[in-house]
Structures are given as structure tokens and as C-alpha cells.
């Protein structure tokens, strides 16, 4: 089961998460889920959903090894639309903050995925910084590189709508029995771990395009 951000986790950095996140069980979220972020043509023949955590090392590895080819050969060519469903793994508070930073002051899917890619690249540094406060300082500095003020970044960490969004995403994943990250669903069908390799990803996507 995935976990929501907690008030205690952010307390060390002076960030308040002042409401309960348990108990919400929404219906299954589709590819057009307004809570999720997407990139690629809406009418692409391949609709790929990725359940991922910004704090998951396996998700970061997939990005490092597969993202460039996935974007170049499938997304940019109009053959695939990727929708990311945000899930929290430990440390949940930092995973939440990373997602919020990726979304801060933008509704663009392309910008969101660009930022998330940078955060995946810096994931190890963020997660090994020693304290929540130190991790937040890195995130604030990263936001500054993107033209975001400290006030904007900190406000995103405390955004109630963002907390509620993450809760819906977690509950939807739990309802589907998704219990690991990254998990991929292609055209409504969950696909196995072979997709995590570049060769496996290419083989599965090409086979789906030939159907």
C-alpha cells in the first residue's frame, strides 16, 4: 500500500500538512484523469500510464535508461501518449514535495516531465541530504533555476489541493492492486517488469503498434 505525506514528515522543515489524508476511495482514474499529467498526442494509438514515485530509485533508473528513447521514438512521433499517476513511496513527504515542485506554476505536461526528469537525476542527492530541511533547501534552489521564488515553492508544498490530489491517486492505485513502482499500464493492460529495460520496452511497444 502506498502512503500519503504526513504532517510529521514535513514538520522539521517548517511545512504544515494540516489535514487527514485517509479514507478517500474514488473510482478508477482513466487516461483522461485530470489529476494526472500527460505528454504526447491525445489520439495516439498507444496510451501508456505510469504509476511512479519521485522518490523511487527504480523510477529514476527507468527514466535514466529509457526516457530519451521513449520520448524520441514514440511520444514525439505521435505514436504514444504517456500519463503519469503520482504515487508516494518513502520518504513520502519528500516524494510529495518533488511532485509539487514539478507542477509549481505550470500546467504544461511537457514542462512537468522536463522538471521531473531533472528531479529524478538529482534524486540521490535530495534523498541523501541528511534532513528534511536540507532536502527542501535543494528543492527550493532547484525551483530557483526554473524561475520560481522560494515563496512559490513553499506554497506548493502546503497546497491542500495537491495533498488531496495525491490522496486520490494513491487510493486509485491501491484499489487496482498496484503495489510497486514503476508500474505500467498500456492501453488498459498492465505490463510486466520486462518493460523496464530498453529492449523490453521497445519490443512491447512495437508489438502493440503492429496489432
UniProtKB/TrEMBL annotation:
Pfam families: Thioredoxin_4 (PF13462). The keyword Electron transport does not apply. Residues 1-29 form the signal peptide. Keywords: Signal. It comes from the Bacteria. Residues 34-206 form the Thioredoxin-like fold domain. This is Thioredoxin-like fold domain-containing protein. It comes from Candidatus Viadribacter manganicus.
